[in-house]
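Subject: Protein record for review, amino acid sequence with backbone structure tokens
Why sent: The fold of this protein is of interest and is recorded here as tokens.
Enclosed: The protein record, placed directly beneath this head.
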Amino acid sequence: MAIELADVSRAAYLARIGVSEAEAARYVDDLSHILDMADQLASVDTNGIEPLAHPLDALQPLRRDEVTETNHRDDFQACAPAVADGLFLVPRVVE
């Protein structure tokens, strides 16, 4: 796909980005290279290749699921102006 100066100028206008003519010309080249690379990648035959969730074939070590801290809720709620059943009570903000 070929990118032209008008395409870059229109995209800059729609994005409300100020781009000079020199910058737009440079972006035309950069975007053309990027799209050429995407076309090159799209032309690779990937039939029979399973998609990967991760590029490395490694196991992810997970931490043990155990409690490491004690419950401090009562200490934290001791200075609250209003508490009920372990919940902070706040003024209603939605009518």
